[in-house]
Amino acid sequence: MYNNQMKTEQHYGHRGNWLRAAVLGANDGILSTASIIIGVAAASTTREPVILAGVAGLVAGALSMAAGEYVSVSSQGDIEKGDLEREQKELEETPEEELLELAGIYQKRGLTKELAFEVAKQLTAHNALEAHARDELGINEITQVNPLQAALSSGAAFTFGGLLPVLVAFFGNLAKMEYLQYGFAILFLTILGAIAAKVGGSSIKKAVLRITFWGTVAMAITALVGHLFGTSMG
Question: What is the pTM assigned to this prediction?
Answer without folding.
Answer: 0.67
